[in-house]
TrEMBL record:
Catalytic activity line of the entry: D-xylose + NADP(+) = D-xylono-1,5-lactone + NADPH + H(+)
Record EC number: 1.1.1.179
Domain named GFO/IDH/MocA-like oxidoreductase: residues: 147-292
EC primary class: oxidoreductase
Transmembrane segments: none
Keywords from the named record: Oxidoreductase
Family: Belongs to the Gfo/Idh/MocA family.
Ranges where the Gfo/Idh/MocA-like oxidoreductase N-terminal domain occurs: 7-134
GO molecular function: D-xylose 1-dehydrogenase (NADP+) activity; nucleotide binding
Organism: Penicilliopsis zonata CBS 506.65
Protein name listed in UniProt: D-xylose 1-dehydrogenase (NADP(+), D-xylono-1,5-lactone-forming)
UniProt cross-references to InterPro entries, sorted A to Z: Gfo/Idh/MocA-like_OxRdtase_N, Gfo/Idh/MocA_domain, GFO_IDH_MocA-like_dom, NAD(P)-bd_dom_sf
Lineage: Eukaryota, Fungi, Dikarya, Ascomycota, Pezizomycotina
Length: 390
């Protein structure tokens, strides 16, 4: 049977667009996907058509592939099925709206938007226009993430009561990011929370929330956040969020209980300073019968352990370690691209693994953390008005 082919339009030519395009160009069969395939039919750069052309040549994108010097031209191209939005998060709302209004499906990089109000409008627009829309939280589509979620659902570590997740980089912030880079520039919605903290929250949500049947998922009942501003720009250089969920997983049957989580991110200290996991796991998912530990980085983990609780004096605790590979030497973004293709093939507007409702709840958590920490962004990038020139 012929595979279902998706025709991609790439919006922006920066770092993550490069990584995504490389993965799109790998042969799906190498990762065991024979049902879908990908073609890049157009690339747009906001700076010039020659920049887009240079990107096409550099990345060896097969011809024909159109090169555009504006995003407006890209979304008007009738040969494009879906737009991959790879601009800074400050621009995600305006850029995704542009694509949706032009009748294009959208895969938009994380963080989805600057705030939940913008995310809601994107989802409403996609629904109204009968278009597919997904936040590109690629980690959710890794076989490793799927396995961990399945283990939780099967009760492998009992009732999960606490999750601790950290995504911290340990940078020389002034030297590496300065003041203008999108990581710390408030005009580009910079800061650790929206860029890195989203992954800590991803692990909290995909283990404590997403593992429940849809009807039992409940947003956090309490959120407490501490934010440390970066002295040169005011963007957050560190954010820690404590969350309580009114549910436990995989079931709430043994006793009516809550689960707790700690989601952390920091630019100046690292999750794993030795880059050898000597600091311990980046994620601990703790249940009544044991725990699952995921080694970092949390956005692209390669290994997890299931540790069973020691039950008697003589019995040793059981530890099972699992390594997950990236076929074809890929980065791992192809799994989310395959998901987009399958959703389009099946006429779905959203992905079950990253549903709109969950993206919005996570944005609401980040809104609340920013409210408590006093972190605001310029009015224009917090705005829900469209179109707006940024
Ligand atoms: N999934 C992941 O693992 C991952 C990793 C890194 C980043 N990201 C996300 O991807 C997005 C882009 O990150 P990146 O690292 O690729 O950033 P980047 O290297 O700075 O690239 C961003 C691109 O956006 C375009 N752009 C449009 N308006 C812009 C403006 N006002 N200022 C700067 N750039 C502008 C530019 O391309 P043109 O001029 O060619 O249009 C630029 O090259 C962010 O939302 C980030 O959170 C995701």
């Amino acid at each position: 049977m012929a595979s279902y082919n998706v025709r991609w339009g790439i919006m922006a030519t920066g770092g993550i667009a490069t990584t995504f395009v490389r993965d799109l160009l790998t042969d799906p069969k190498v990762r065991g996907a024979s049902d879908v395939s990908h073609t890049i039919v157009a690339v747009a750069s906001s700076s010039s058509a020659s920049r887009a052309e240079e990107f096409i040549v550099d990345k060896a994108i097969p011809r024909p592939c159109a090169a555009y010097g504006s995003y407006e031209e890209l979304v008007a191209d009738s040969s494009v099925d879906v737009i991959y939005v790879a601009t800074p998060h400050s621009h995600h709302f305006q850029n995704s709206m542009l694509a949706l209004e032009a009748g294009k499906h959208v895969l938009c990089e994380k963080a989805f938007t600057v705030n939940a109000a913008q995310a809601k409008i994107l989802c409403e627009t996609a629904k109204k226009k009968n278009l597919f829309l997904m936040e590109a939280v690629w980690t959710r589509y890794f076989p490793l993430s799927v396995q961990v979620r399945d283990l939780i659902k099967q009760g492998a570590i009992g009732e999960v009561l606490r999750v601790i997740a950290d995504n911290s980089t340990g940078d020389d912030v002034e030297k590496i990011w300065g003041t203008a880079h999108r990581m710390v520039n408030k005009d580009l919605a910079g800061g650790a929370l929206l860029d890195l903290g989203i992954y800590s929250l991803t692990w909290v949500f995909q283990t404590l929330y997403h593992t429940l049947p849809v009807t039992q998922r409940k947003p956090p009942s309490a959120i407490s956040a501490h934010i440390t501003p970066y002295h040169l720009t005011g963007a957050d250089e560190a954010t820690t969020i404590l969350l309580s969920f009114p549910t436990t997983t995989p079931s709430n049957s043994t006793h009516p209980g809550e689960s707790q989580a700690v989601a952390m991110t920091h630019l100046r200290v690292a999750t794993d300073p030795g880059e050898d996991n000597s600091a311990g796991p980046a994620v601990r998912i703790q249940g009544t019968k044991g725990e699952i530990q995921v080694d970092g980085p949390v956005w692209r983990p390669e290994r997890y352990r299931v540790i069973s609780k020691k039950t008697g004096d003589s019995e040793a605790s059981g530890i099972k370690e699992v390594h997950c590979s990236f076929p074809g030497n890929g980065h791992g973004m192809y799994w989310e691209a395959d998901e987009v293709a399958r959703c389009l093939r099946d006429g779905k507007l959203e992905s079950e693994s990253m549903p709109w409702e969950e993206s919005i709840v996570i944005m609401e958590v980040m809104d609340e953390a920013r409210r408590q920490g006093g972190l605001t962004y310029p009015e224009s990038i917090e705005s829900t008005s469209y179109p707006l020139k940024l």
